[in-house]
Design goal:
The complex is a heterodimer. Chain A is built from 29 helices and three strands. By secondary structure, chain A is mostly helical. Chain A has three domains: 379 residues, Sodium/glucose cotransporter, CATH 1.20.1730.10; 43 residues, no CATH class; 122 residues, no CATH class. Chain A is globular, with a radius of gyration of 26 Å. By secondary structure, chain B is mainly alpha-helical. Helices cover 79% and strands 5% of the residues of chain B. Chain B contains three helices and two strands. Chain B has a two-stranded antiparallel sheet. Chain B is elongated, with a radius of gyration of 18 Å. Classes of the chains: A mainly alpha, B mainly alpha. Chains A and B meet through helix 7, helix 12, helix 13 and helix 15 of A and helix 1, strand 2 and helix 3 of B.
């Protein structure tokens, strides 16, 4: 029986090319089928539902087929995932709903400075490959905290790693579920809360029965949908405009046109030097310090996020793990090097057909998004010509044409509106929605599994009940998965603005909490338990202190550290003035209003050397590294056994370090 | 035996530091000069912008494939590669 199952499994792996080839072909056929239906007059709403429900159904079917009762399959997909497919799965795992929908919009708004995200979210894979992933694969851990416990000994390091993991993953998964809700409600007119729970069902169907195995094979399917959906509209657009279907090459021309239009707008009084950020001009939003700090924190954070690292536990060998990181980055690169093209084409469209137009002749696509509150003209939602005329007439001396400062657009609109701007049929817009959903669902799956596995494997099995039989381990794993998923969906359904803005913190938290101990654990034999504990607590602690202090206790933070703040003399004077106003406020209402104003201003001046809190790891990282180094050298060296273990970790040949008694994994 | 393992780790570390230096160069150093590079045109793009939007990314991808095969070569030559 077991042999048969093994043979069938081998069959599945060797036929992967055929299976996913057929799947991709089927997906294109489905898109064409819906396009035909659209031509026959089927309403847009139905096309949208067709896309969303069919793709979710396919993911669910893959999830159910991949159900498993084996621990090794549940936690690390049996360590049988070939490099290329693991690369695709990592790509889907990595690219979130926000990357898919919001990245191009960020580049639209920030121009060159937004490229910090493009660089930061790709370059980290170099660190993953050269410093971490192959060694973790050789180690044979089921989770990232597993490595900490074995390398540094003791459950306290494991517990610290679990805490960091949950801190950086939970807000992130909440944001993914929120993104599914936003996409489904915008495209399908579904109620937001209902959409969140539909997303939850989609996520659970993919991950609950088959754990890592099921998530892997659905993520491959989701990658294919999301990359097709991202590339197709902008390829069509590039072909229409420049006759070359490679938008990544043709947008150089668009950048030049944007530059010329920017000059025109300035000379025609359609824009002021304060409101116009020239697209290719560096450091208009971030100063160089913050630009490079952000790149560093995003890259190191990438190399520390547990849901990414655990993907490399699934490859058949160390060699495949290395290759797999290269493939991951290639698949991720396809999306990230296209995003600036989206931004440039959209900006050209806005500058050439919106700015400087008569209010009467506004392009109709603006109203589609104005109704949703995503495009504003003269400060009012652009719902109709009359509405924007009324709003602009309120502004003294308004010339009657749209100026740059009159126009504001939500970052999500850039990708979503491209099909419509280019006059493509609705089916392409539906495809984009399906792609955004695939991106959000796949990332949510990976994160959820990372959290639930840390709870079930590290906390329950390794810390509470070391004798739990296989069946109980898997039941506990599934109960925890559902619990975490429901908690995240519930949190998302309350639309927590704070949680969503905290997502960007995940990178700094992971970088400061995990990276130093992880890298030194592999590359420095002398690193010991005491060093690891002190380094994690101090590095992570200072990062949390900076994030929370500058955001939630800004007044106090500024007063404590005003000597390190880079606030200008004017800003310092303003702080003092607001502070006096708050102290002298007559009654409670005035006092709380004065506090709000004071706190808001304090957030702009509460900093150390002007570093924004998104880059808090700039402090956490060196502190973490230094603490591990100093404390390790002051205390006894790790035992001979541990040092031998590090040696074995560095050698690809031989057995994994950790071997789970319940997991029947192929020997290597 | 000990000798061989030391040499393996030395070669592995050298490769790591080479890649690390390239990573520092393409992540940070090259972008310090964005303003100067923007005066040069490359494929119709200002070069400074191009490097951040595409150039460095392409370098990262190529680096990782080169790294995977270079490390594999070291593994084989030093006799620590896994069985196929």
């Amino acid at each position: 029986m077991a042999d048969q199952a093994q043979a069938a499994k081998g069959d599945f792996i060797s036929n992967l090319g055929k299976i996913y080839g057929l799947y991709t072909g089927g997906f294109f056929a489905f898109v064409i089928f819906l396009a035909i239906l659209e031509q026959l007059g089927v309403p847009n709403q139905w096309i949208g539902y067709g896309f969303v429900f069919l793709t979710i159904a396919v993911y669910a079917v893959i999830g159910i087929i991949s159900r498993t009762t084996e621990v090794g399959e549940y936690y690390v997909a049996g360590r049988r995932v070939p490099a290329v497919y693991n690369g695709m799965a990592t790509g889907a795992d990595w690219m979130s709903g926000a990357s898919f929908v919001g990245m191009a919009g960020t580049l639209f708004l920030l121009g060159y400075d937004g490229l910090a995200f493009v660089l930061g979210w790709t370059g980290g894979y170099v660190l993953v490959a050269i410093l971490i992933a192959p060694f973790l694969r050789k180690f044979g851990a089921f989770t990232v905290p597993d490595f900490f416990a074995e390398r540094y000994g003791g459950n306290f390091t494991r517990f610290l790693a679990v805490i960091v993991l949950i801190c950086c993953s939970f807000t992130y998964v909440t944001a993914q579920i929120y993104a599914t809700g936003i996409i489904a409600s915008r495209f399908l007119g579904m109620d937001f809360t209902v959409a969140v729970y539909v997303g939850l069902v989609g996520i659970l169907l993919c991950s609950m029965l088959g754990g890592m195995k099921a998530v892997t094979w659905t993520q491959v399917a989701q990658y294919i949908v999301l990359i097709v959906a991202y590339l197709l509209p902008v390829v069509i657009l590039s072909t229409q405009k420049y006759g070359i279907p490679v938008p990544q090459l043709t947008y150089g021309q668009a950048l030049r046109d944007i530059g010329a239009l920017e000059q025109n707008m300035l000379s025609n009084g359609l824009a002021t030097a304060q409101t116009l950020k020239p697209h290719i001009k560096p450091f208009t939003t971030y100063d160089p310090l913050n630009y490079f700090a952000l790149i560093l924190c995003l890259m190191v954070g990438t190399a520390s996020l547990p849901h990414i690292l655990m993907r490399y536990f699934t490859t058949p060998s160390v060699r495949e793990a290395r290759k797999s990181v290269a493939w991951s980055l290639f698949f991720i690169f396809l999306l990230y090097f296209t995003a600036p093209a989206y931004a440039a084409f959209s900006k050209l469209e806005v500058y050439s057909t919106v700015i400087g137009r008569d209010l009467d002749s506004v392009r109709p696509w603006l109203f589609t998004y104005g109704v949703l509150g995503l495009v504003k003209i003269c400060g009012a939602d652009a719902v109709s010509v009359d509405a924007i005329k009324a709003a602009c007439s309120q502004i003294a001396g308004h010339p009657g044409v749209i100026r740059l400062q009159d126009f504001s657009i939500n970052t999500d609109v850039i990708v979503l509106s491209t099909p419509e701007i280019a006059g493509m049929p609705y089916v392409i817009a539906g495809l984009v929605a399906a792609g955004g959903l695939a991106a959000a669902l796949s990332t949510a799956d990976g994160l959820l599994l990372a959290i639930a596995n840390a709870l079930s494997h590290d906390i329950y099995y390794k810390m509470l009940d070391r004798n739990a039989p296989t069946t109980r381990r898997l039941i506990v794993a599934r109960i925890l998965l559902v619990t975490v998923a429901v908690a995240a969906a519930y949190t998302a359904s309350t639309k927590p603005a704070d949680i969503l803005s905290m997502v960007a913190w995940a990178f700094s938290l992971a970088a400061a909490g995990i990276f130093p101990a992880l890298v030194l654990g592999i590359w420095w034999k002398r690193a010991n338990t005491a060093g690891c504990i002190v380094g994690m607590i101090l590095g992570f602690g200072i990062c949390v202190y900076y994030l929370v202090g500058t955001r939630y206790f800004a007044v106090h933070f500024y007063e404590t550290w005003s000597w390190l703040s880079t606030a200008s003399p004017a800003a310092v004077a303003k702080f003092a003035e607001l502070k006096t106003a708050w102290m002298n406020a007559a009654d409670e209402t005035a006092k709380s209003a004065a506090w709000v104003a004071l706190d808001k201003h304090a957030q702009t001046v509460a900093n150390w050397w002007g570093v924004r809190n998104i880059s808090a790891a700039l402090f956490g990282l060196p502190v973490g590294f230094l603490a591990i180094w100093i404390v390790s050298l002051l205390t006894a060296a790790p035992s001979k056994e541990v040092q031998d273990m590090v040696d074995a970790t560095r050698r690809p040949r031989g057995q994994t370090i950790i071997r789970d008694k319940d997991a029947a994994l192929p020997a290597h | 035996m000990e000798q061989g393992e030391d040499r393996y780790w030395r070669r592995t570390s050298t490769l790591m530091w080479t890649m690390f230096a390239l990573w520092v160069f393409f992540s940070f150093v090259i972008h310090f000069f964005v303003n100067q590079l923007n005066n040069i045109e490359f494929l119709g793009f200002p070069l400074g912008f191009y490097m951040a939007a595409q150039g460095s990314l392409i370098a990262f991808v190529v680096m990782l494939f080169v790294f995977a095969s270079a490390q594999d070569k070291i593994d084989r030559e030093e006799g620590v590669a896994e069985d196929e």
